[in-house]
Each structure stands twice: as structure tokens, then as C-alpha cells.
Amino acid sequence: MSFGLALGGGAARGHAHVGVLSALEAAGLRPSHLAGTSAGAIVAGLYAFGVGVDEIESAAGEFTWRDVAGISLKRTGLLSNRELGDICEDLLGPVDLRDAAIPLAVVTTDITNGERVVFTDGPLSRVVRASAAVPGVFEPVEIGDRQLVDGGLVENVPVAALRELGAATVVAVTLDTGLDFQTPRSLVPILINAFQIAVSTASEAYIRDAADVVIRPDLRHFTHWNTKDGAAIRREGQRAGEAAVEAIRTAQR
């Protein structure tokens, strides 16, 4: 039996996805399909192309907002996340989603009309940038004739995208457990907090009803924007992944 893994958005909390994957690998469980939104798209994209969990964590452990964002010269966002695409290409080269070793879907939002846009082909670096482009913080990413932003607006934990990809059993990883925000002291953290509050409120009931297994790392004490807590966040993901192993095995029967 096989299962698909849907990795949700959560900015810096995305380190938890690496811990979950590490725990599942240790238990001999590897997903047959992957879908990701925002931070989940970054991890899912790298893992689908064969980058190991330790290498993903090593790369992510060096991230700061300065590493993945630059000043935007456009009026549609404060920052550009072009550097995030460069990091993906440094690890993988200019790969296309359709060539992933594990079938992969990435969720984005068309900011011009609110449409949910799911990619199963196209340049990974550009698609991941779009999926992680928090509106207002990052400028939209143009792909074709679309202006695309963070997929969390329409499907923060991409359960439906995973089923559309062909996964019969869906395991969802949500990072919006315990929205314990620290007081932000600049505009970007305020915008990210506002975005995550809205996204979490909209998606919780849907995830519970639509997924076969839901993994919820205990992230109450970690913000979405502090990049210094990566190792501790990964450990929480590892614990949550280990706790879900038997439920995943049962769901596959």
C-alpha cells in the first residue's frame, strides 16, 4: 500500500516537515505522492527530486529572511523571493516538476482572480517561489499570463491537490497548531502573522474532514517568522511523525 503526503504552509515552521519525513523514513514509510503549499512546497519539491532530509535541513538551517528575500523594485510587494528560486536551482539545477522522482503537486493562488492554481509541471524554482510568495510581503511571481502568490490563500494544506494527483490515502501535515505569536516589531512579521491567522482559521475544519491521517507538530512556542528555531522545530516534527506511524500503517490497510 502507499500514501500521499500533503505538506502545509507555515513559513519558518516548515522545518517541522523535515522532522516528519525523517521519522517516516526511519519507520520504513515513504510517500508515493507529494503535494506542498508555501514552506511545504519547498520541502516537498526538494524531497521529490531526491534531496535527503539531512541535506534539506542543512540548507534550510542556513536560511534567514535576508537569504531568501531581496528588496523589490516593484510596487506589488515589499520584497522579492527570487533568491529562494536561486537556492532551489543551486541544489537541483533548472528542473521541471514533471520529472520529479515522486509525483509532485504545488499549490498557488492567482491574485488577479482568486483561482487556485495547482502545478504538476513547470519550472520547480519558479513554481515554489510563487507558492511561497506571501501577498503584500513578496511580489507576485509571473508564470504564463498569471500573477501568482502563496497557495495558503486557497489550500494551505494541499489535501485536495494530493488526491487529484492520484493518492488514495492522504496524510496531511499542518503547521498551524497553537498560534502563539510573539509581538512583531516590524512590518514584515505583522503581515506574515496576519496572513497565517487568516489561513489557519479557514483551513482547520477542512483538513480534519478531508485527510485520512493528520500530523500536528506541537509548535505553540514557535513563530512563523523566527528562522533561528529550526532545530527545535524539526525535533517537534520528528516527534509528531513518530507518533503518527501506526495511524499511517492502519490507514493503508
Helix content: 40-55%
Report the portion of residues in β strands: 15-25%
Biggest sheet, in brief? 8 strands, mixed
Give the terminus-to-terminus CA distance: 7 Å
Content-based structural category: alpha/beta
Oligomer: single chain
Q: How many helices does DSSP assign? A: 10
Counting DSSP E segments of at least 2 residues, the number of strands comes to 11
The string of secondary-structure elements, in order, is EHEHHHEEHEEHEEEHHEHEH
- Radius of gyration, in Å, reads 16 Å
Regions with pLDDT < 50 over 5+ consecutive residues?
none
The residue-averaged pLDDT reads 88
Description of the molecule:
The chain is an alpha/beta fold and 253 residues long. It is 44% helix and 17% strand. The protein is built from 10 helices and 11 strands. Strands 1, 2, 5, 6, 8, 9, 10 and 11 form an 8-stranded mixed sheet that branches. Strand 8 (141-143) and strand 9 (146-150) form a beta hairpin. The radius of gyration is 16 Å and the shape is globular. The relative contact order is 0.22. The model has no long low-confidence stretch (mean pLDDT 88).
